[in-house]
Design brief:
Order of helices and strands: HHHHHHHHHHHHHHHH
Distance between the termini: 22 Å
Oligomer: single chain
Radius of gyration: 21 Å
Number of helices: 16
Helix content: over 70%
Length: 345
C-alpha cells in the first residue's frame, strides 16, 4: 500500500512542478499546447486526499479513549507531531526568499521586503492562504500547506468533540455543498479543504470492506492492464478538471473524486501504480519520498538561480537545466537534514 501511495505522491508533485514550470520556461510551444488542455493544479487534490485518508487512520486510534483529558493529550500530541513534520522544511524555505528580498532589494524578483516579511510571518502561523488573498506572488504556493495545517487542527478537534458519526455526516454535507458552491468567491481555490474530507471519508469506506479479498477476487488483471488503467486515471486527473473549467466549483470536486479513486486503488495493495519496470519504480519511489521537500524548495531554488544569473548571458536552456538539477539537489538536502530526522522522531 505505502509504495503505491508514494507513487501517487510522485504523480502529485510532478503535477505541481509541471504547473509551475511556466515560471522558468521561456515561450515553449509544446508546453503551451499541453497546458491548453490540462490543469495539473489537481495535484494538490491528490496530496490532500492522501492527507485526509491517513488523518482518519490516525484518529481511529482514539475510539478506545473515553477520558476527556486523555483525548486532549492525544490531540496535543497529534498537533505537535504534525508541526514537527512540516515546520523545519517549510520555515527554512520561506526564510530563504525573505533573506534574498532583504539583502538584494530586488523587488521585481523577490517582492518588496516589507511585503515578503508579511508573507513570512503569515506562513509561520499557517495563515498564508488568508494573506495571499490581498497580494498573490510566486511564493504563494505555501497556501496549500497552511490549509492542510488548518484542517489538521480543526478536523481532529471536531472528531473528538462530536464523535465519528456526526463528523462523517458533516463531512458528507460539506462535500456535497462544495460541489455546487464555494465561499470566498475568487480566492476559493486557496480554501478547498474538501479533498481532505474526501480522503477522510474514503478511509471509512475502505474500512467497511475487505479490500484484499475483493481485490483478489475481482481485480485479477495483468501488469500491462494495471499500467494502462493507472496512467488513464492520472491523465484524466489532469485533463477532466480542465475540461470542466466552465463549472468552476464542480471541477475541484471532480478532481477530488478522481484522486479518491486513485487512493482507493493504491490502498487495495494490488500494485496498481507500481506495476512499471523496476528502474522506473525506483525513480518513482525516490521522488515520491521527497515530494514534500520538492514542494517546499522548487520555486525558491528556481529564483535563486534567477538571482545569481542576472547580468550574465546564459542561454535559457542552460538556465532551465540548472534550475531543475539544483531543485533535486536541494530537495535531497532538505529531505536528509530537515525532513527525515523529524519524520523519524
Amino acid at each position: 500500500m505505502f509504495k503505491d501511495i508514494q507513487a501517487l505522491r510522485f504523480f502529485a508533485i510532478f503535477f505541481v512542478i509541471f504547473l509551475h514550470l511556466a515560471i522558468i520556461l521561456p515561450d515553449n510551444h509544446t508546453y503551451g499546447i499541453l497546458r491548453s488542455f490540462s490543469n495539473t493544479d489537481s495535484g494538490v487534490e491528490l496530496f490532500f486526499v492522501i492527507a485526509g485518508f491517513f488523518l482518519s487512520h490516525t484518529l481511529e486510534k482514539t475510539k478506545d479513549i473515553t477520558s476527556k483529558s486523555d483525548k486532549i493529550v492525544y490531540l496535543l500530541k497529534l498537533y505537535i507531531k504534525k508541526l514537527k513534520r512540516l515546520s523545519p522544511p517549510v520555515y527554512f524555505w520561506i526564510f530563504i526568499p525573505l533573506i534574498f528580498s532583504i539583502i538584494t532589494r530586488n523587488s521585481d524578483l523577490w517582492l518588496p521586503y516589507n511585503l515578503m516579511i508579511e508573507k513570512f510571518f503569515s506562513s509561520i502561523v499557517w495563515l498564508r492562504n488568508f494573506e495571499e488573498i490581498g497580494t498573490e506572488g510566486n511564493f504563494g504556493y505555501m497556501w496549500a500547506l497552511s490549509l492542510e495545517m488548518q484542517f489538521f487542527i480543526v478536523y481532529p478537534l471536531l472528531f473528538l468533540m462530536l464523535g465519528r458519526k456526526k463528523t462523517i455526516l458533516i463531512s458528507v454535507v460539506l462535500c456535497l455543498m462544495m460541489t455546487f458552491y464555494r465561499p470566498f468567491g475568487g480566492p476559493a481555490w486557496m480554501f478547498r479543504f474538501d479533498p481532505m474530507l474526501y480522503g477522510a471519508l474514503l478511509y471509512y469506506l475502505v474500512k467497511s470492506f475487505d479490500l484484499n479479498k475483493l481485490a483478489n477476487e475481482e481485480f485479477k488483471i495483468n501488469k500491462l492492464h494495471k499500467i494502462i488503467i493507472s496512467l488513464t486515471l492520472i491523465i484524466s486527473l489532469a485533463v477532466i478538471p480542465a475540461a470542466l473549467s466552465h463549472v468552476w466549483t464542480f471541477r475541484f470536486s471532480c478532481a477530488s473524486f478522481l484522486s479518491s479513486i486513485c487512493v482507493l486503488l493504491a490502498v487495495m495493495e494490488i500494485n496498481f501504480f507500481t506495476s512499471f519496470p523496476d528502474r522506473i519504480n525506483k525513480v518513482i519511489y525516490y521522488i515520491g519520498d521527497r515530494s514534500f521537500s520538492l514542494f517546499c524548495c522548487h520555486i525558491p531554488v528556481w529564483f535563486m538561480v534567477f538571482q545569481f544569473s542576472q547580468g550574465h548571458q546564459i542561454p535559457a536552456l542552460y538556465r532551465v537545466i540548472t534550475q531543475v538539477i539544483l531543485m533535486f539537489v536541494f530537495a535531497e538536502l532538505t529531505y536528509r537534514f530537515l525532513e527525515k530526522p523529524f519524520k523519524k522522531s
